[in-house]
Each structure stands twice: as C-alpha cells, then as structure tokens.
Amino acid sequence: MVRTHSRKPPQRHYQKMRAVFSICYFTCCRVSEALQLEREDIVGNRTVFRKRTTKTKQTREVAIHPRLAEILAMAELFTRGYLFPGRDGKKSMTRQAADQTLRTACDYLGLQGFSTHSNRRTAATRLNNQGVPLRVI
C-alpha cells in the first residue's frame, strides 16, 4: 500500500475520533448522531440516541459492546455536556470536522473509498449477515 499523503493525522484527536467512528460501527448510527451524544446519553451499559438528534426522530437505546466500552474509556471523553464538543465548546463537533479528520487519516494510510458513512454500512451488513432482520437494523 502506497501512502498518498505524508502528513500524519493530529494525535490530539486520535482517541476522540476513534471513539466517534467506533460508536458508529458498534451501534450502527449515523456520524451526526454520534457527534450529538452527550454524557447523559451513556446510561450504564447503554447508549441512548435521543429523538431530537436522530434522522427518524425516534429515541432508541443500543447496548455498549465491551470493545466499544474499552475505546470510550481510552478516549477520556468529557464528563458532562457533549462527548465530542466543537472548538467553541458550546456545540458539538461538526460532521465536516469529523469528515476532514477521517480524510486526513485515510490519505495518510493510502485508503480510498472510505467515508463517515462507511462504518454504518459495514455495521448494517455485519448485522444482516448474522441474521438480524432489516427492519430491526
């Protein structure tokens, strides 16, 4: 694999961004839903996606996979407010900022065809292959 870009992704965002995209992968959520999560949305071993932050306008709860729990613990996320705050600290990180960080990492690794939606598609495919009905996914 040939690297197409020599700039390393910023290390200060690595664990945080890994947490964002791991949430997308392990919960099958959209990146915008992951970015809107607040500390209060992590309830015990479940993640609550509130209806105000979802495209379908329906609240749903998803169990936190043990591997995701480890990743979230390593990320040292905020203890209140947004898990992934933007630069001003008052709003959540934007989809564009998450996308730019992902593109930088993919360029560095020489990956093509990967987007912020890839984790959701992969998770949905994995669940479907395991026999989970599409209406549940």
Give a written overview of the molecule.
With 137 residues, the chain is mainly alpha-helical. 43% of the residues lie in helices and 7% in strands. The protein contains 5 helices and 3 strands; from the N terminus they run ααβββααα. The protein has helices spanning 11-27, 31-35, 66-75, 95-109, 118-129, and strands at residues 42-43, 46-49, 60-63. Strands 1-2-3 form a 3-stranded antiparallel sheet, with no helix packed on it. Helix 1 runs antiparallel to helix 3. The N and C termini lie far apart (34 Å).
How would you summarize the topology of this molecule?
Blueprint: H1 11-27, H2 31-35, E1 42-43, E2 46-49, E3 60-63, H3 66-75, H4 95-109, H5 118-129
Antiparallel strand pairs: 1-2, 2-3
Helix pairs in contact: 1-3, 1-5
